[in-house]
Every structure is written in C-alpha cells, then in structure tokens.
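Ticket #4471: structure output looks truncated?

Reporter: J.K.
Steps to reproduce: submitted the chain below (96 residues) through the standard prediction queue, then opened the result file.
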Amino acid sequence: MRAKPEFRDRDETEVAVLDALADRREEGMTVFELRSRVDVDIDTLEAALADLKDDGLIEATNEGERTVILPEDGVVGPADPDDESVIDWVRDRLPF
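Returned output as attached by the reporter:
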C-alpha cells in the first residue's frame, strides 16, 4: 500500500514514513520500526514525524510502555494499484 497521491508531493522522508505506515495501518509502528524502514538519521525522522503530526496526517497512541504511530483515516491509498482511479493516475503523472 501507499499513501494517497495527494500526500505524495511532500518531503521524501515524509512520503517514506506514510508509505511504511500504510503497510501497517491497522497495528501502526513504533519509531524504532519506522527507523528500520525509512533510511534516514533519527533527527530527520523526528522532524518528518513532527511535520506529519502538525498537518494531521498521523497520530501517536500509547500502548502500555510503547508509543505507536498510525496514519490518520484517509491518508492510505488503495491496496491494489489496479484500484487506482483515472484521476489519481493523471494526478500522479502531471506536474502541478
């Protein structure tokens, strides 16, 4: 899965975080799990998470002794690339 096309024009790290979370949108990921999927230093990852949280695209929840990050509803795109609409396809390919 991937983040929806309207969220793909963000910083490269932010898109990588959203894509990683899209793969585990039900259970979420910890910062350490995201760090293993998004190949950036911890400061860059923290900045991306802060920007995504400020924009309302992710949420952080406490589950016992760990914090889990989840994508907000509406951020994750279709599970199957064949489900992509024509509008999404055009939006992905045209420079706006």
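Triage note (M.O.): checked the attachment and the full token line is present. The chain has a mean pLDDT of 85.
Status: closed, working as intended.
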